[in-house]
Design brief:
By secondary structure, the chain is an alpha/beta fold. The chain is 29% helix and 23% strand. The chain folds into 3 domains: 2-106, no CATH class; 128-197, no CATH class; 202-343, 3-Layer(aba) Sandwich (Rossmann fold). The protein is built from 9 helices and 15 strands.
Length: 363
């Protein structure tokens, strides 16, 4: 979501009466690549771009291809294929040994449903969004897209068979990942990408001591939505400028977590941590971390005799991955890394220990 916000911010600065823009989007990946489906790059007709579709290998060529799409006012699909490690294929070395398809779409500022505006509409969504997009190279429907309301019983997109579309959407929601489907529209075979876009991670930091600054800085860099539960008078102006909401300890009950909420108790106040913990026991977030030693957690466990805290998988105490972190900044990176691992359902181990590809294959 951070990249999407940067792209929209750049788009809003452009004088569209003098410049034209296109959006380059990764729509298919096979084998290895630095970025995955959904990576985006906004290209201006003057050659400036925002975002990225690779680690820097493809952007130069994608810039030229996007400018060509702008000039023709026509969407196109570009394939970058180095499965055979042929650096001459596009004149540059990808170093990834993968096949990547990039959709180049000129943006019509007069169209209220252009992709930039669709992305803008999901910036503050609290549930996952699904964008359907045609990626059939030779189809006149190429780049046709729509934000799908998957809770709508009357699913409609390009006259696709509703039952087939619904089944595809259910698969994407279950996997929490993008998928490509071969569907039919008015008897025509079309390849449709259903892109799964997570809402921003919401981090609720409970505390107002100096280490909250480090945790806020890490979360802000990651583009997370940040709420702080603490005393406003103890928070610096710099910190407040980076958070979305500040709530007093007494009003902690106002925090109602959703599916992408992580809570970290780091008030250094046993009573407040215990009180606020009990609030989240009634409405648990996917991740709840508690700063401090195990003895502190065990004391809480004994005090709350009606619940077995140790048996609750969403509670992580001590919070964070074992990295040998010492400073507030290192500890904050450790905590953020564990939150990512939990939300992406990963082990949080060294990649060299992982068998098979780094990323799950996107079909």
């Amino acid at each position: 979501m951070l990249e999407i916000r940067k792209i929209i911010s750049e788009y809003d600065k452009i004088d569209l009466s003098k410049e034209k823009v296109a959006l380059a989007s990764v729509v298919s990946v096979e084998a290895s690549s630095y970025r995955r489906i959904g990576a985006r790059m906004l290209v201006r007709s003057n050659g400036i771009w925002t975002g990225g579709i690779s680690g820097g290998c493809l952007e130069g060529d994608a810039l030229k291809q996007s400018q060509n799409a702008i000039f023709k006012n026509e969407s196109s699909l570009v394939v970058y294929d180095t499965m055979d490690d042929d650096n001459n294929q596009i004149g540059i070395g990808l170093g990834c040994n993968g096949r990547i398809e990039v959709l180049l779409t000129p943006i019509d500022p007069e169209d209220p449903q252009n992709e930039i505006e669709v992305l803008r509409s999901i910036l503050h969504a609290e549930t996952p969004s699904i964008i359907a997009k045609v990626i059939s190279r030779d189809s006149e429907l190429l780049a046709k897209s729509k934000l799908i309301n998957h809770n709508d019983n009357a699913l409609q997109f390009l006259n696709l068979k509703p039952s087939s579309l619904k089944e595809a959407i259910e698969t994407v929601l279950a996997k929490k990942a993008p998928r490509i489907f071969d569907l039919k529209s008015d008897g025509q075979d079309v390849k449709v990408l259903l892109e799964f876009i997570r809402p921003e991670t919401r981090l609720v930091i409970v505390g107002d001591n100096y280490d909250v600054n480090a945790m806020t800085n890490v979360a802000h860099t990651l583009g997370w939505e940040i709420w702080v539960v603490g005393r406003m008078k103890k928070l610096t102006k710099e910190l407040v400028s980076k958070v979305n909401r500040v709530i007093s300890f007494e009003n902690h009950f106002q925090v109602q977590p959703h599916e992408y909420t992580a809570v970290v108790l780091m008030s250094h106040d046993y009573k407040w941590d215990l009180t606020i913990l009990q609030h989240f026991l009634k409405n648990p977030p996917p991740y709840l971390g508690m700063l401090g030693p195990k003895k502190r957690f065990q004391k809480m466990d004994k005090e709350l005799s009606d619940v077995n805290l140790s048996a609750l998988e969403y509670i992580h105490s001590p919070t964070g991955l074992e990295l040998g972190a010492e400073s507030p900044e290192e500890i904050s990176h450790s905590i953020a890394s564990e939150i990512l691992a939990v939300f992406r359902q990963k082990k949080g181990q060294s990649l060299k220990l992982k068998e098979g590809p780094i990323h799950t294959r996107e079909l």
